[in-house]
Specification:
The radius of gyration is 13 Å and the shape is globular. It has one helix at residues 57-64; strands at residues 3-10, 17-28, 31-42, 45-51, 72-77. By secondary structure, it is mainly beta. The strands form two sheets. A three-stranded antiparallel beta sheet has the order 3-2-5, covered by helices on one side.
Length: 79
């Protein structure tokens, strides 16, 4: 299973990352849901997260939205 991030349009208004995460990992018991996810979204970019059921899309969005914590890695907002 894997998630795919699709960049539909890039209308960069600045030279900084609005959101950046590196090496994000998340486990639920023995099940590793996210393994080494890296993501960078610049201001003005429009992206979508696509993947099959159970691929970790909602988990990643919960982490990025600070609704859940990572088991490893880092998340930066307005870097």
């Amino acid at each position: 299973m894997s998630c795919i991030l699709i960049n539909y349009a890039k209308v960069t208004l600045g030279l900084y990352s609005m959101l950046r995460c590196t090496n994000i990992t998340k486990r639920y018991g023995q099940l590793q849901v996210l393994k080494g996810v890296d993501l960078e979204i610049a201001k003005g970019e429009i992206v979508s997260l696509v993947g099959s059921s159970g691929a970790g899309k909602s988990t990643l969005l919960h982490i990025l939205g600070t609704l859940d914590e990572t088991d490893g890695g880092e998340v930066w907002l307005n870097d």
